[in-house]
Structures are given as structure tokens and as C-alpha cells.
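Entry:
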Amino acid sequence: MGLRVHRAISWIGRAEACDGDDDARFIFLWIAFNAAYADEREFQSIPQGERAAFLDYFGRLTALDSERRIYKAVWQRFSGPVRLLLENRYVFNPFWQHHNGIDGFADWEDRFKASARSFAQAFQAGDSARVLSFVFDRLYVLRNQLVHGGATWNSGVNRAQVRDGAAILAFLVPVFVDLMMENPAVDWGRPFYPVVA
């Protein structure tokens, strides 16, 4: 856990130095998030998948979050940016599947509406793990757009989701790290890249 936290904090610090560069800030914060949650299981021959790994990690975090810091952050501080992110079709994976001609996604608009209803139900029920799952599904699409070259650096198009995504990560990832540090006895998984001298 110490190595995970150390690495995550180092990337959070690097992200804080990105004044005015939301693309870089988002990417560095995503690296911090990866440092905190990624488990060696993801690198084994049959990985469990990003979504399952997120949900497992979020479940552990929210179970330990007795003060409901995560829920309060999403509800009080970022309800606007989170809502806008979830209403943005450009960070909804089935939208891109459809526009890339992949069969089975012609109903992306119905899926988009269903996702919005499911998010609202999770939010009203106070199910922080599911709420985070919805938020990070969208952030993962944004991450893919940036990391895989599907966006132009500092573009004038679709800036709001990058700015809001970076702001959401900048607030949540340190909360995740704090919860991990407050619960060092929990099995947070083994980093796949240990320090080898």
C-alpha cells in the first residue's frame, strides 16, 4: 500500500504543476488513479477488465468511507460537472461504437438515456460505488481519447469535459489516497511493477 500511495501522490503533485494545461493535468491525474487502484491481476493472462477492477476498488473505498467524503464530493462539490459529464454523449462509449460502425450499437441513444436513469437511481440511493462507476466509465472514454491520440492537445473542441474531468479527478483521487492511508491493513492488491534494485 505504501508504494501505491507514494506513486499516486507523486503524480498528483505533477498534475498540480499543470497550470492551464487541462489535457496534461487529466493524464497525470489518471496515472495517479492507476497507481492507486491497479492490481497485478490486471496484468495476468485473463484480466478481469477495467470496469470490474474499478467497481471492486470503489466498493472497497466506499465501504471504508464512514464520513461519506466521496458521496459528498460528488453531490456537493461536483454535482454540476458530474451531471454535465454524464449528459455528454462524446464520453459515452456506445456513441463511439455506433459512429465507428460496430454492429449492435444503433441503439446508443436508448442506452444513453438508460444510463442517465440508472445513474440518477444510484445517486438517489446513495450508492457511491455505482455512482463512481458511472463517472469513471465516462472518464475512461475521455482517457482513451487523450491517451490514444483521439483528441488534439489544447483543442478548442470539447474542452469542457477535459476541464471538468481533470477537476473531478483532482478532487477524488486525493480522497481515495487518504482512505487508503487511513486503512493500511486492507489488501489493496500488489503493484505489478514493484521497485526492483
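Residues 159-182 form the longest helix (24 residues).
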